[in-house]
UniProtKB/TrEMBL annotation:
Enzyme class: transferase
Protein name, entry field: 8-amino-7-oxononanoate synthase
Pfam families, A to Z: Aminotran_1_2
The family this protein is said to belong to: Belongs to the class-II pyridoxal-phosphate-dependent aminotransferase family. BioF subfamily.
Subunit structure of this chain's protein: Homodimer.
Length: 390
């Protein structure tokens, strides 16, 4: 026996699931250069337009001059430097929680929180549409793992009735492929009534939602009581990299002591923490970014509805257009690209069969004119395809 990787890759191609990795030859921003082509991009998670902000770049450079490049070691050895510490304190204060703990990626923060909190004999219940990192975390934890129907508190309740041991309910705050919000008030009440803890991964909401950017918990006015475990990531609205878990002092100390993805990895470069601190400052002081983004979302939704396109129930910068058929979604994405516009086609197995979509994401860095250009192009491309049979 040998590893027949060629056959495996060929099968992937035959199923039309082979993924291409576009090469970005410019900084993040609305106008990018990809594989030699200038394009107007609607597929980044840089929701507030901070990834290439000169002040954030400057904070990174100053941080590198002062602190060097590498984290040097894990946090518990000698990798926990002052910028990490200051950022953790600032994130704790911003989220109104006693403590926050910094991670190098959201994927690791999710693995860490779930596996440190539940294990054999416990239960982890997850929304069916949760991000892959949360599903992986549930499987890795060795707790009894089950998925409830998307955003359905009744489905969660019936699983909670059968749960044993410590029980953790885990949900995305904003679902990454649909853009819809978790029904946190209902999920929190259901979990709390049965003594379970709720963990929310607000990767796509933190910084972008809520009057001051506090994310989905601010949007719904929920605190530590309802959401004991809050995860936010810094690679999206913050425009930098990394993630954090925020919660009680006991929760954070438990992660420091027991979370293997925290203990056994080199800390992120301290200069990145300096950049994230600057992003936090901009996000707090420049509320116009969220206001402009909200206006773009409204403009896009109105225009797409006028074109007869199928929007999803999303009040967030993730504005997928439901196409259905994978080949049609890919063809629309290709036609848009011919017109200088980059929007990704998302197909099964990333999304359920028959729900292929164009995943449009908007950013405060876009102008109204750029969103209108996208709408014009969508109208043109749609007209080139045969009508969908009802
Ligand atoms: N959670 C969600 C909902 C995400 O969409 C992502 C990344 N796309 C992550 C976690 C992982 O975060 P990171 O990219 O920082 O690893």
């Amino acid at each position: 026996m040998t590893f027949d990787l060629a056959a495996r890759l060929a099968a992937r191609r035959a199923e039309h699931l082979f993924r291409q990795r576009p090469l970005l030859e410019s900084p993040q921003g609305p106008q990018v250069r990809v594989d030699g082509q200038p394009l107007l991009a609607f597929c980044s998670n840089d929701y507030l337009g901070l990834a290439s902000h000169p002040e954030v770049v400057r904070a990174l450079l100053d941080g590198a001059e002062r602190w060097g490049v590498g984290g040097g070691a894990s946090h518990l050895v000698i990798g926990h430097s002052q910028p990490h510490h200051v950022l953790e304190e600032a994130l704790a204060e911003f989220t109104g929680r006693p403590r926050a703990l910094l991670f190098s990626t959201g994927y690791m923060a999710n693995l860490a929180a779930v596996t440190a909190l539940v294990g054999q004999g416990d239960t982890v219940l997850e929304d069916r549409l949760n991000h892959a990192s949360l599903l992986d975390a549930g499987l890795l934890s060795a707790a009894r793992f089950s998925r409830y129907r998307h955003n359905d508190a009744a489905s969660l309740a019936s699983r909670l009735d059968k749960a044993s041991g410590n029980t953790l309910v885990v949900t995305d705050g904003v679902f990454s492929m649909d853009g819809d919000l978790a029904d946190l008030p209902a999920l929190a009440a259901t979990a709390k009534a049965r003594g379970a803890w709720l963990m929310v991964d607000d990767a796509h909401g933190f910084g972008a939602l809520g009057a001051s950017g506090g994310g989905i918990v601010e949007h719904f006015g929920l605190g530590l009581e309802e959401v004991p475990v809050l995860v936010g990531t810094l690679g999206k609205a913050f425009g930098t990299a990394g993630a954090f878990v925020a919660g009680s002092a006991e929760l954070i100390e438990t992660l420091v002591q027991f979370a293997r993805p925290y203990i056994y990895t080199t800390s992120q470069p301290p200069a990145v923490a300096c950049a994230s601190l600057k992003s936090l400052e901009l996000l707090r002081t420049e509320g116009w970014r969220r206001e402009h983004l909200a206006a773009l979302i409204a403009r896009f939704r109105a225009g797409a509805a006028e074109l007869g396109l199928t929007l999803m129930d999303s009040p967030t910068p993730i504005q997928p257009l439901l196409i259905g058929d994978s080949a049609r979604a890919v063809e629309l994405s290709r036609l848009l690209r011919e017109r200088g516009i980059l929007v990704g086609a998302i197909r099964p197995p990333t999304v359920p069969a028959g729900t292929a979509r164009l995943r449009v994401t908007l950013s405060a860095a876009h102008s109204v004119a750029q969103v209108e250009r996208l709408l014009d192009a969508l109208g043109e491309c749609q007209a080139l395809l045969p009508p969908v049979e009802q």
